Automatic annotation (TrEMBL):
InterPro entries: IF5A-like, IF5A-like_N, IF5A_C, NA-bd_OB-fold, Rib_uL2_dom2, Trans_elong_IF5A_hypusine_site, Translation_prot_SH3-like_sf. This is Eukaryotic translation initiation factor 5A. The lineage of its organism: Eukaryota, Metazoa, Chordata, Craniata, Vertebrata. Belongs to the eIF-5A family. One of its GO terms (cellular component) is endoplasmic reticulum membrane. The gene is LOC107586748.
Length: 152
């Protein structure tokens, strides 16, 4: 018999965190996986076909989570992995005990994200206590979170 605790009304299809795209189809300001890290493409150049018949694409990307620069060279006809990225905007409702209370567009509240360490965390707290209204942008790619803050 079926387990009554299982809920199949929503969920994903267990899809991969990346999908393949031909290197020549990638564009500046797009996303690509370089050295195993999801990166935003900041520079891209293509060399002419050489003696062996393949044009090479030189990619320079910035890791979307750590801001480190990564480079790679790939034949233009080969596939590269592109991360499935997802971005959500939340309104900061409260900050307590080092955790953020974030409200989604549909009114649901999420309380499982810690206030980030360092300058971003200090900026979130100061903007929240100063303006009482600010948006927190959470992007996820490869099961990692990236956070950005704007006040409204």
């Amino acid at each position: 018999m079926a387990d009554p605790d299982l809920d199949f009304t929503s969920g994903d299809a267990g899809a991969s965190t990346t999908f393949p795209m031909q290197c020549s189809a990638l564009r500046k300001n797009g996303f690509v996986v370089l050295k195993g890290r999801p990166c935003k493409i900041v520079e891209m150049s293509t060399s002419k076909t050489g003696k062996h018949g393949h044009a090479k694409v030189h990619l320079v990307g910035i890791d979307i989570f750590s801001n480190k620069k990564y480079e790679d060279i790939c034949p233009s006809t080969h596939n590269m992995d592109v991360p499935n990225t997802k971005r959500n905007d939340y309104q900061v409702v409260d900050i307590s005990e080092g955790f953020l209370s974030l409200m989604m567009d549909n009114g649901d509240v999420r309380e499982d994200l810690r206030v980030p360490e360092g300058d971003l965390g200090k900026e979130i707290e100061s903007k929240f206590f100063k303006f009482k209204k600010c948006l927190y942008k959470v992007s996820s790619a490869d099961m990692v979170l990236f956070r950005d803050l704007t006040h409204i």
